[in-house]
Structures are given as structure tokens and as C-alpha cells.
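Loading example: each entry is read as two labelled lines plus one structure line.
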Amino acid sequence: MRSFFPPQRILMGPGPSEVSQRVLQAHARVTIGHLDPSFQSLMEETKAGLQVLFKAPDHVCLPLPAPGTGAMEAAIMNLLEPGEVAVIAINGQFGERMADMAERAGAEVIRVEHGWGEPIDLRKVEAALWARGAKVLAFVQAETSTGVHTDPGPLCALAREHGALSIVDAVTALGGVEVDVAGWGADVVYSATQKCLGAPPGLAPIAFGPKALEAIAARKTKARTWLFDVSLLMGYWSGVGGRTYHHTAPINAIYGLHEALCVLFEEGIEASIARHRRCHEALAAGITAAGLEFLTAKADRLPQLNPIKVPEGIDEAAVRARMLATHGVEIGAGLGPLKGKIWRIGLMGASATPLSVRTCLTALTQALMAEGFEVSLKDVLSAVEARLADG
Amino acid sequence: MRSFFPPQRILMGPGPSEVSQRVLQAHARVTIGHLDPSFQSLMEETKAGLQVLFKAPDHVCLPLPAPGTGAMEAAIMNLLEPGEVAVIAINGQFGERMADMAERAGAEVIRVEHGWGEPIDLRKVEAALWARGAKVLAFVQAETSTGVHTDPGPLCALAREHGALSIVDAVTALGGVEVDVAGWGADVVYSATQKCLGAPPGLAPIAFGPKALEAIAARKTKARTWLFDVSLLMGYWSGVGGRTYHHTAPINAIYGLHEALCVLFEEGIEASIARHRRCHEALAAGITAAGLEFLTAKADRLPQLNPIKVPEGIDEAAVRARMLATHGVEIGAGLGPLKGKIWRIGLMGASATPLSVRTCLTALTQALMAEGFEVSLKDVLSAVEARLADG
């Protein structure tokens, strides 16, 4: 076994995204104890930073020691008890995953199915909420499998009207599009570090609101998880003086998240969202100039996750392999029913730059030409520059 | 919010332990995609390295994206279905945690209670296994809360005789004392990165044996976890070509673990164990020369976790605070019934060096003197040097 040195890559898939040298260096600072007074201060700052980022001043915010899927499990397992009803809106892979987890929590799951590539339909969800008294309405704001954005505000309002708690998956959303937990009145919202936050994968920020915590305190049975039991986790993250040992926090990963939050606040959350939007528009101009099409309608598109249809007769895997080999550019494949049908181009966090857009489109165009697809690199790049010059 | 720069510390508590610059640098290498071909090679090497480390050539070995507690949850939730019987031997905090988790899995738990500081009693466990047909026998090899070592071999044999699967918690054991999964015939064994492996906290290596995987394949219900469902995880870690997306692996943490494995294999597993033993003996000589006592009988002691009784009339928290303030040395407090009664001195991974032993004992002796305890620093250090000179 020998030391591993990763190759140079430009990460433009569905995550992980680029991590800046500044965040990587923070990630590599010397490990200290998780009960050290100075680490406790770092935890407090991280909690406060997440409250600002989620726009959730009244929520308990903390980073779970797990991938985004761990936060999904925490949300589902803490809010649902056996026999309770969960309405899950499904419009892609991550909605499916929520439904699977809710079944494992012992809940009765009402699945509100949509086509992959469609946003969530309020009327369908409302019909499901009328059917039976649901404890929870869960859905994905930014479906990473399809690149579809759903506005959480109206769905959270609907949940409230029906006395249900809302769970919003904002894994790919946070930092790239508006996330406004207080404005939506959302009960539980979670994300992950490796998408638009610019930190390495491994942590899952989550926000639990007052009504969610009340429901958790009123549980009749223990949650079907110990590691993610929020009543125990809150004791560990409760602040200097009163902390109770729970697990050993992933110290260095929290250094990385903290630094990524510093970077994000220096840029400004709104500025970060505008940068994602601007890069998306430049990419979309190039995609159109290349004669390619989006899977999604314009109104539903996530700037940070661009689902591009694979043209008839093109070997999609060969295109991705060539992009990686010639330019070091990684883009994503389709999942589930979209396997072989789309590419997923990510513009997340530090990957959302004009330079990445140009490099990615150059690599894609050249790979398409190698596959016999007719396209002009000059036209593609001109369209990008015209869009960027527009602001 | 401003960048965080950790203070200089010497980590001699119950974990995290020191992380070498070499491992920290690996941890900070540039993030690549989790589906990148070169990351797939790294995963293969890491799996193979864990098989060697666990001495488990026939087990599926992989690092879970979570703290050690996540591996405990994975073991319990995968092996147990509602209504099945689990015998859990409890001789400290982590045995208690296993019992709590097994109840959350829906199992009927037979608790085999021991005093905190005692090793596990084979006869008591055998009596419990006779009582009812148990599916699982679970116990902790290295109880981090008490510093007690229990030899897993005879317990695993007992489980086999009674047709039960064995779960061995080797969180603090692996790399510091003998772990021989194949030799014991253990079914599921897990650990964590921040103890004797010398990597930052955040990953939990786990080994599932053939009988455990058979039992998992024969489950009638889905495991009460999606993130840690080993039938799904194996698809993600299945090797080049056949991988199925599950979660996003914590790329940089795996760089760190891989490098820590390189370091460990360069030293040699047996040499690492001998180093832990040698440092423990030097520390114990100093502890005795200081007029202090171990909580545990000599035969049961873990070299890497030394539980030292707090002398009558000494403010244990003041001693720890002074050690941290004057020498930057972190040691651990007691947990549960041992709170205020013991200190826990860790000698784990890169923290297990003669230099750390000297510094820790110097800091401890001076802090004790400040509290009015009579002790000679010269005698303490002479005892350490004499023991080290002995080999």
C-alpha cells in the first residue's frame, strides 16, 4: 500500500464540487479534542453560522456527522413513529429514498408520484393530505437526480394548514438557490457540505424547528436511530457547560465546514446565489448553441444542477470518459429511469465559475465532435461570452 | 465569523488521539469525485487494507461514513429484527449503548450486567445464552469508559456453540491490542479512526463475516436504517464496474484513513501493538511512583486507555484544566458512575510515544502538586526512564 495522490480534476458533476485550497487547509489543521474548550467555541460559531445560512433563527441547527443521507434519515426517524402517516412527494431518486426510509421508520407512507423531471404538484399533494391525517409532509427542494427545483414555501404552508410537519431536503439547494426556513415556516430542513457550500463531503447540516422538537419530545417510542436521535444530539451540541457526551464529532470536517461558512459569508449568501444563477445562464447559452436540450422546463431549472439530454445515437458514457481523460472534467450520468438519457452538469460552490463553464463546454463539445456530433466550439464559446458580458 | 486556528495540544484522552502531519496532509489533498476511477482504486485498496488490519480475509470490510457509534448502529440494526433476542454483555458505557440500540431495533434484549471496571464474565454470558435462543451476542472488547480489556475469542466461541452471531466492538482496540477476527471466528467487528489508527475522527471501519451476511440476506423485514443498510452499502463498495450509487463517500476522510493504514503497515501491526504496550508500562510505572492507582486489575488493563483513580480530596476537573493550561495536555474524565472518580489517560496511535508519556506525567504531577498532593516529579520520571530502559 502506498500514499494516494489524487489526479487533477474539475468537478462539474452532481457533487462533490470543488473544494478551495483555503477550505482544504482548514480541514488539515491539527486535530484537537472534541471536549476542548476551544472546540466548544467552534461548535457554537458553527451552529450560529448555520442558523444564518438556513435563515432559521428559531431552529436548532447543527451538522450531523454523516453524508446528506444521514440527515434525511435523522429527519424521518425523529419525526415519525410506527403507524403514523407520512405524505412523501416523489419526483426523483431522493424522494424515493425518503419513502423507503419512512417505511423503515414504521410509518404508513402515502406516495405522491410525479414523473422524473417534473416539479412537485401542489394539488396532488393537497389531495393526499386530505385523504388521511398525516403527521409529516416530506419533499425535495432541489432534486439532484433530475435538476428540478420546487418552491418549498407553498408546500410548507399546505402542510401547516393540514396540521402536518414539513421536511424539506435542501441538500443541493443550500447556498445555490434561496433557502428561507423561517420565511417558509419549514419544520425540518437539511443539506450537505459537498454541494453548494464548498466543503468536502461528510457532514450534513440540519435545522429542527420548535414544532418539530415539540413533536419529538412527545414521542411515545424511541426513534429508530441512536446516532441521529436529535434529543440526544442536542445534549452534545447544547453549548459550553452543559454538554453531554454522545459521539466523537468529526473535528477536522467541522474545521472545513466552519471555514466554508466563513468563505460563504465573506462573499454573501445572495451574491453566492447570484453567481450560481449567472454561471447557469452562461452554461445554458452554450448548451443551446451546441444544439443540446435541457430535460427540464426553464421555470423549474436548478442553476446548480443542469440535466442535459443525450442526443440520439451518442454514447453518453464515452463522452464522459473522454471529458475526464482530455480535460479532467467530471460530469454526472443519469440515475434510475434517466440512466443513459441525460448528463448532469453541476455548477456548485467553488465549481460555479465562468472558467469552469468554459472548460466544461470545451470538453463536452470536443467529446461530442469525437462521437460524430456536429457542433461548433466557436459558436458555443461565443454564446457563453455573450451571456457573461450581459451580466 | 473568522477562520479558526486550533491551539497546540497533546491528546492523551480517550480519543481523538494525535494525527500525524503525514495523515493530515493526505486528508487535505484535493477532493475528487466518488465515482472517479482513481477513487474506486482507493476504495479497493482501503477495503483490502482493512481486511489485513482486522485479520478478516473472508469478511466484507469497509469504512462507514460516520463515527464509531454509526458502526455500532450498523451492526445492531443489520443483524436484529423485531422480536429477536439479543444478549448484550454490559461492563461500561458502550455496552449500555448497544443495549439501547438493540431495543430501538425492536429486539428483546437480555442484559448481562457487570460492574464498571470488570471484564466480561463468560459464565454469566453463557447462562444468558442458555435462557433463550439468542440471535446475537454483543459485547465490547475495549471498554473506553473503564479501560477494561475482554478477550473476544472465548465469547465468540460461546456464541457459535449457541448458534448466535457475535458482534465485537473494537473501537478502541484496533491497532492497540490484538484484533484477530478470523482467529476468533467473530461475525461482525467494528472500530473507528480516531483511536489507535491515527486518523481524524469521522469514519468507522466495519467487518461483516459470511454468516452475518447470510443472516442479513435472510431478513424478513428491512433494516431500521437506510444509510447503514449493509445490503445497500455493499453495492456501493462492490468494486470497479458494478458499483451502485448509495451515498457520497467522505472522500477526504478516506484519503486520511488510507494514509493512516499506510503508516500502520509500514510500522507493522505487531510493532504498533508492542509500542502501545511499552508506553503503557512506562506510564504505569510513573503512575505507581506517583502514588496513584489504576481502577482496573492488571490482567484486564488496556494499554491504550488507562483509568487512574482520583485521590481523595483532589478536584479532578481542576487537575485536568491545569494540565491543559500549562502543558496543553488533554486527558479524559470519568463517565457515568465513574464521573469524578477516575481520569482516563489515552495512549493511542500517534499519541503512544515515550515523549507523550513523559509530558503527560510531568503535567499530571505538577497539577497534583498544585492541588496539595505530595508527589516527587523526579521519582515519577525516574520510574518511567527505568521502565523504558528495560525495553
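Chain B has two domains: 21-265, 269-389.
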